[in-house]
């Protein structure tokens, strides 16, 4: 009985939180039951890994060649970064005012007020869920195409087929699923490792792209005909 009562106890700050945000007590009143494994560095790594900006942008150049050329990707990145600054500033303000690991649906439930908070929070939660599903699928697709193209580069006789990409996609997705389910304690370490891996990979990629054209007789820079 005591255990059951303790589960239902309110957080010491929950009453103040619900009063300050128009009585959204259902969202605010809960206890922390999941152990906290992530720190500042691992959370930073999580954001960088999820964004994975330069590998995704580099991989999209192949597609952009047939849709306006690679400069479209580069200038698009500048424009998107400008608007994303305002998105990041808004999220930072919400996170500092109402810190919660719940994220979007928590803020969407509180900021509209008591009247519309539940409805907007419901849709925000589902849209956030679908966003994570699509983001995971896109990252797995990029990874699968990269693996297949690396294999094709080393095996000139290999013919790329869609079923091969899909097979690697399914295997990668299930490996990621098992890693999250059974390797939760290792996730923060992997995120910290991902920071250095992405930054070192970016440096290596820049050096290779700058050095290889000079070794193969190229000019080392894009010409006006290419642009």
Automatic annotation (TrEMBL):
InterPro entries: AA/rel_permease1 (IPR002293)
TM region(s), chain numbering: 38-57, 77-107, 119-143, 163-183, 195-214
Region ranges (Disordered): 1-22
Membrane protein topology class: Multi-pass membrane protein
Main location: membrane
Keywords, in A-Z order: Membrane, Transmembrane, Transmembrane helix, Transport
Pfam families: AA_permease_2
Gene Ontology MF term list: transmembrane transporter activity
Annotated Basic and acidic residues bias: 1-13
GO cellular component: membrane
Localization: Membrane
Protein name per the record: Uncharacterized protein
Native source species: Fusarium oxysporum (strain Fo5176) (Fusarium vascular wilt)
């Amino acid at each position: 009985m005591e255990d059951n009562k303790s589960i239902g106890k309110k957080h010491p700050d929950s009453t103040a939180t619900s009063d300050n945000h128009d009585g959204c007590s259902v969202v605010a009143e809960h206890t922390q039951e999941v152990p906290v494994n992530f720190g500042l560095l691992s959370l930073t790594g999580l954001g960088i890994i999820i964004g994975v900006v330069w590998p995704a942008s580099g991989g999209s150049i192949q597609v952009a060649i047939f849709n306006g050329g690679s400069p479209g990707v580069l200038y698009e990145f500048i424009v998107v970064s400008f608007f994303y600054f305002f998105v990041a500033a808004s999220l930072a303000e919400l996170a500092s005012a109402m810190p919660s690991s719940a994220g979007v649906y928590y803020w969407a439930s509180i900021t509209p007020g008591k009247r519309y908070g539940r409805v907007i929070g419901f849709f925000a939660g589902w849209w956030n869920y679908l966003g994570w599903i699509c983001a995971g699928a896109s990252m797995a697709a990029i990874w699968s195409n990269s693996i297949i193209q690396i294999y094709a580069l080393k095996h000139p006789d290999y013919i790329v087929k869609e079923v091969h990409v899909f097979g690697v996609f399914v295997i990668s997705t299930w490996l990621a699923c098992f890693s999250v389910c059974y390797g939760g304690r290792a996730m923060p370490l992997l995120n910290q490792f991902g920071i250095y891996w992405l930054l070192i990979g970016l440096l290596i990629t820049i050096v290779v792209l700058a050095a290889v054209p000079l070794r193969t007789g190229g000019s080392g820079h894009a010409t006006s005909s290419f642009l």
